[in-house]
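Cross-posted from the bioinformatics board.
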Amino acid sequence: MSILVTGGTGYIGSHTAVELINNGYKDIIIMDNLCNSSDNVIDKIEKITGIRCKFYEADIRDEKALDKIFSENNIDAVIHFAGLKAVGESVKKPLEYYDNNVNGTIKLLEAMKKYGCKKIVFSSSATVYGDPGVSKYVEEMGRGNPSSPYGETKAIIEEMLESLYRAEPDWTISLLRYFNPIGAHKSGLIGEDPKGIPNNLMPYIQKVAIGELKEVSVYGDDYETKDGTGERDYIHVVDLANGHVKALEKLTTPGIYVYNLGTGNSYSVLEIIKAFERVNNVKINYKIAPRRPGDLSRFYADPTKAKRELNWEATNRNRRYGT
Ligand code: NAD
Ligand code: WQD
């Protein structure tokens, strides 16, 4: 089975390529324009797995490049990670986000259709739930109003895929809604290495740990949470990657399938900082700062549907964070 992984040199894509290979999918084709990653990830995946993925440096909006990839390979399924993901940047540059994420996905789907490949696993996000007024997110709740243009692109792509399935019911489409991915492969060879100052909590803590940044700003300590700081459902990236393997394996009949990929637990910002200090034996300087606009106090996944239907659950969920 040949699988095209768009955005496969990125953080989640690279871990997924490794887990696919570990599960016997040896024919992995990666395409990435390298706007947020490096091609040396291909060497690293090979170092971890012993298998070299075929790599195309190409943009998903480039029809000619897609033609080349699909005509040179007999692709059975696509796992689609390629996209821009910085929430703050999306507020400042909405058109870039709609063009890259939405337009890019349209081009990719057109190429898939042209070459008769009708199986796609899409990287969606818990952000599509918007602000539903409850903390535990269940798939049945449906989409709300995402708080950023980035989130809107994910909701639009979900809608687009639903329309596509209604029009052409021979597609097999998985919408995987990730909660907060963190961590890295145990080899230390691949991981999250955002360019510039990180937006997300865990890479920020890591940069403070190595002395590159001075201190973590904890955005708000007056939420109605266990210690006043924001709570999230942090999921290990290897668990997340395995969710994609399960989606490929289990979803073999045409349909549109939606799953939360989270642990079902939430941890506060201070708990994460303390756990990081304890596990790594380092001091993380932090200060309490004002709330970050658009942040919710607390949310976490109800992961029971993925467990029931995909036989998937996060295995690192308690061990990793020391609670
Ligand atoms: P990432 O930036 O590490 O990976 C995305 C990859 O896509 C990068 O390697 C980038 O170079 C590539 N890319 C971007 N635009 C492209 C284009 N037009 N053509 C080809 N390649 C392109 O991000 P990630 O954390 O691995 O996220 C992967 C996917 O998961 C994204 O779609 C993201 O929105 C989604 N997601 C991420 C998170 C998270 O917190 N990391 C949460 C929910 C959903
Ligand atoms: C986590 C918690 C912050 C940074 C975002 C996207 C979401 C998804 C995952 C892609 C919150 C607090 C953070 C810092 C802090 N991405 N924090 N100081 O906002 O839950 O989700 O990434 O789909 O769509 O919105 O993740 O890591 O930014 O924040 O106190 O320097 O850490 O307030 O409570 P978030 P995050």
